[in-house]
Amino acid sequence: PPRGLLIVTGCRRGEIMGLQWERVSLALRTIKIDHALLYSHTRGIYLDTTKTADVRFLKIPQEADGIDKLD
Predict the structure, then answer these.
(1) pLDDT in tens, 28-54
(2) How far apart are CA 21 and CA 70, in angstroms?
(3) Strand, helix or coil for residue 31
(4) What gap in Å lies between CA 25 and CA 37, rounded to an integer?
(5) How many CB atoms lie within 10 A of CB 63?
(6) pTM of the model
(7) What distance in Å separates the CA atoms of residue 54 and residue 38, rounded to the nearest whole number?
């Protein structure tokens, strides 16, 4: 589940919630972090760049094995 990814990757909550399957490579065991799910009173829930606007590639740690079988 998403909270497990928070723990093993160190990503921000919005980065995990904004993660899309197109940015996960199970073959390379990497996750591309380039968006975050955000909320504001005026816009509601929306997808935007990360807090720092940086793009990061993270290795999927062994602790996250089974990421493709999330409920």
Answers:
(1) 999 999 999 999 999 999 999 988 888
(2) 12
(3) strand
(4) 20
(5) 12
(6) 0.71
(7) 16
CA distance 1 to 13: 12
Angstrom distance (rounded) from CA 8 to CA 42? 33
The better pLDDT of the pair 70, 61 is held by 61
Task: Name the residue among 30, 28, 26, 46 with its Cα closest to residue 38.
Answer: 46
CA-nearest of 32, 26, 38 to 11 is: 32
> What single-letter DSSP state applies at residue 35?
-
- The more confidently predicted of residues 56 and 67 is 56
What's the CA gap between 37 and 29, in Å, rounded?
22
Q: Determine how many CB atoms are found less than 10 A away from the CB of residue 9.
A: 20
